[in-house]
């Protein structure tokens, strides 16, 4: 019995867009895709600037995990934000009332991406901020 290929979930779409054949986030393509330098991308993801300039560090679990978390959150909001660029602007600048006015970017940098995803899930089903 053949299995049909599933369409990627909305939260996976940007992650898959920027994934290389080895299953890692492709740093150069990601930076280019959002019109950022690697330094700006590192800052946005809460990583040291040097991390994204060295292959062994940019491929490390922590760096890849942080970039994946950032992309998952941006993917979740891109449809209602009006696209990935607007979703990135939301991620970086929109204060979230449920988190004392901190942004999704600040929360991801603090290691609280799961809380942001839970918040977005809550909002998606009609919850209040």
Structural class: mainly alpha
- Please give the largest β-sheet: none
Fraction of residues in H or I helices: 55-70%
- DSSP, total strands: 0
Count of helical regions: 8
Shape: globular
Mean pLDDT: 89
Q: Roughly how many Å is the radius of gyration?
A: 15 Å
Proportion in β-strands:
under 5%
Question: Could you give the order of the helices and strands?
Answer: HHHHHHHH
Unreliable residue stretches: 1-9
Q: Give the count of structural domains.
A: 1
**Distance between termini?**
45 Å
Domain Antitoxin Xre/MbcA/ParS-like toxin-binding: 80-124
Protein name: Antitoxin Xre/MbcA/ParS toxin-binding domain-containing protein
InterPro entries: Xre/MbcA/ParS-like_toxin-bd
Pfam families: Xre_MbcA_ParS_C
In short:
It comes from Bosea rubneri. The chain has 129 residues and is an all-alpha fold. 59% of the residues lie in helices and 0% in strands.
Show the helix and strand layout.
Blueprint: H1 10-17, H2 27-33, H3 38-45, H4 55-58, H5 61-81, H6 84-93, H7 104-109, H8 113-124
């Amino acid at each position: 019995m053949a299995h049909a290929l599933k369409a990627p979930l909305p939260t996976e779409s940007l992650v898959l867009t920027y994934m290389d054949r080895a299953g890692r986030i492709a740093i150069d393509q990601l930076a280019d895709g959002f019109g950022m330098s690697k330094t700006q991308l590192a800052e946005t993801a809460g990583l040291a600037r040097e991390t994204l300039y060295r292959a062994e560090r940019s491929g490390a679990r922590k760096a890849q995990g942080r970039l994946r978390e950032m992309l998952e959150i941006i993917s979740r909001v891109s449809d209602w934000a009006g696209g990935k660029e607007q979703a990135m602007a939301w991620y970086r600048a929109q204060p979230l009332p449920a988190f004392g006015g901190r942004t999704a970017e600040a929360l991801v940098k603090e290691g609280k991406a799961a809380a942001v995803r839970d918040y977005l899930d809550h909002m998606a089903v009609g919850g209040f901020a």
